[in-house]
Inverse folding.
């Protein structure tokens, strides 16, 4: 079996839902797109080697009431986050040290 091209693959929900009573990850309270851009910058600042992290923005991942959310593969670990500090903890604990951040983990 060959090595994966990326060690980790992060998917950020950045869905924006106008005029719906259901919450979404990209709204006045949750600015998921700016958090996605923050993580992109932090990956570079933290010095992750090439092919360690692939970062993608996605549409709705159907966990709107838990949002904003992201999922880390290959483990399939879902996280909720509220701020840059939460994202830093996911990057350093999970991606750098292999430790899942239980306080932010979503159980599905």
């Amino acid at each position: 079996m060959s090595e994966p091209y990326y060690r980790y693959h992060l998917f950020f929900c950045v869905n924006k839902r106008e005029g719906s009573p259901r919450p979404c990850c990209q709204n006045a309270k949750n600015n998921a797109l700016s958090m996605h851009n923050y993580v992109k910058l932090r990956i570079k600042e933290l010095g992750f080697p090439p092919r360690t992290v692939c970062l993608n923005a996605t549409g709705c991942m159907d966990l709107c009431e838990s949002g904003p959310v992201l999922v880390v593969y290959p483990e399939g670990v879902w996280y909720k986050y509220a701020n840059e500090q939460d994202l830093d903890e996911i990057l350093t604990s999970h991606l750098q040290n292999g430790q899942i951040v239980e306080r932010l983990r979503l159980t599905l």
Q: What stands out?
A: Strands lie at 8-13, 53-58, 69-73, 77-80. The mean pLDDT is 92.
